[in-house]
Amino acid sequence: MSDSSVSSQQNHALIVAAGQGARSGLGLPKQYARINGQPMIRYSVVSFLDHPDISKIWIVIGSGQEQQLNEAMAGLSGHEVVIGGAARQDSVRNGLSAIAASGGAKNVLIHDAARPFLSHAIIDRLLRSLAVEAAAIPVLPTIDTTISLDGEYAADTLDRSQLWRVQTPQAFDFDKLVKAHRIWPADKEATDDGQVFRAAGHKIAVVEGDEALKKYTTASDFAASSEENMAQIRTGMGFDVHQLASGEELWLGGLKIDHDKGLAGHSDADVLLHALTDALLGAVGMGDIGDHFPPSDPQWRGASSDKFVEFAASVIKQKGGHINNVDMTVICEAPKIKPHREAVRKNIAKMLDVSVDQVSVKATTTERLGFTGRGEGIAAQAIATITME
Predict the structure, then answer these.
(1) Does position 373 have pLDDT exceeding 70, yes or no?
(2) Is 186 within 8 Å of 79 (Cβ atoms)?
(3) Are 9 and 130 in contact (CB under 8 A)?
């Protein structure tokens, strides 16, 4: 679960996807264009769907885009559709009205579908801030020297320490945002909902943004995405075995499972996470778990194996890669893995900061053959596929 103190039933997500994307030059609304093989809008929807503290998702689309949305959302459920208006603030108002008509919400996160790569970390930061603030937005510093223009000529150099780039999702107290939109002039265009909220006299807290949340706007943005698709694809494999022993706890995929025996080892002996760690490290040529967390080091005695997985994921990120998917198999006669499978998937997705549909967990037996068949131990294997820039 997220460490947000806000109840999951209080938070709604509103994805604005009603634009025509004329500047993209794609010949279709850009939110339905494919990035890395999937419609752009699908990424944001999946991220919100997989987050445990988001209770309902609303997608605002343009009139006549229903079929395009249905195709983009194939296999997904749990979202409501609203028809947008002529301008962005009209679409947001329509979405807020639909939420109000359904019973309202305490908080709403408003997100642009043109920012597809939304991490759970950003959502968590916003929800933590909403526990004490009326609104919060993600921002990033302005890195380049920034100037004003005098016609076609450079003018003053601006103090970039006072300039910040604003991203979405932007998170608000629902009732306050509804009232702010009601008093916003109908003939004045708003660039985002933060502008509307500030104009109503409210303060907005800021949280750290994410460079991955870039906005896709022009044809060059999508061309760059196509070039990224040519990046190097790497695969790593991992395999691990631990003995079953009386008096030990059984940890699998970061979850404690009730069983008459547990796995013996120097750390918590989570055989599934150990195999996954080796697969992740193998994908970037960084050895195995023993190289980084040797069993001879007493600091790792009884350590939680999620630390190993998170370390391996951070190594991939530091090297300019991102995780595409992981596929794991647990090999044992008992306990039964299926009742715990979805919880394990969600747990590992959170460790890796990926969507649940990028995590596969399976189980099999050896038909009572060998040490796993005799109930002497549990084995696990994992494959991780990553993209390196």
Answers:
(1) yes
(2) no
(3) no
